[in-house]
Design brief:
Length: 339
Amino acid sequence: MKKTILIIAVLLVCTSQIFAQNTESPNSVENKKYNYRINDIHCHYVDFIQNTDGIDVLLKQMDHAAVDNIVLFGLSVTKLWTDFDRERPTYYDDNDAPVYYYAFTDVILAEAIKKLPKKQKDRIYPMICGFNPVDKNGLDHIKRMVEMYPDLWVGIGEVFFRHDDLTRMTYGRNPTANCTSMEPIYQYAAEKNLPIWIHSDIGDPVANKPTFLYEMEEAIKNNPKTKIVWCHVGNTRGVDFEGLDETTIRLLNTYPNLYYDISWVVFEQIIAPNGKPDPKWIAIFEQFPTRFMVGTDKIGGFSDYVQTIRKYDVLFDALTPETAKRLASENMFELLPKR
Ligand SMILES: [Zn+2]
């Protein structure tokens, strides 16, 4: 009898341990070390040759990084592998070969999301980007995507305009934010309440001054009903002119339809050089707590996803808890349409 009770007791202990292991989330321990949960508002599902680590890898990395939701784009251009280049370029800057617009990028993204269970699907906020912004037919592509995948898209972007070396590598006329072919797209975006994510360098590295500011300012000013997110605060590699902070304050005061994302090089170059947040920028975030968001700007590869998104922890720690929460997660939902 005693033996039977002992066996039952041992069995009960073992089963409860197995049950505990199965119900515990593999990431719950890791996630506890972060004070703020994040929504990543800038990530590309594919790279410059439209390859990706895959949606499952991305979702797993989001779990590891305590990222709940993500704004995900394809990549509007793809790099040409010429017949004379022995090595295959994967990044646009790998060699001098041009890039061309690749509309199928939106389908790659939509199909990857379609296969997911609802719980995971709900964490992804996809945007349409696979059109040529200097082609007046651009809007047709956007409408086609909306028709093919209804109720999927929450915005348009990331649209590439001025983008350092990429500008001269792109076939055709230099895309600029104020080009007339974008007018119907800005209008459509306002009608459908779809915000637009825009990459448009504020200046060029040679002159290191805000040469191209007027292009963006015209687009923002002429489309007051279109919500525009200016990615990377208009900053790019090699551009670091005096007065970006003052320009940012002026634009935010003037245009209520303007928002910023602080992903990519602007964070290391300007906002937190050597990992120390600049008090000037802390003051700007506190002055405009609803207008900034954070993102990874990963392109198809997600192996260093966790460190890329958690680089913002030094910033969150320097802000008031309310502002930190806004930048980390809340602002994204205020900006995006309800679905
Ligand atoms: Zn990007």
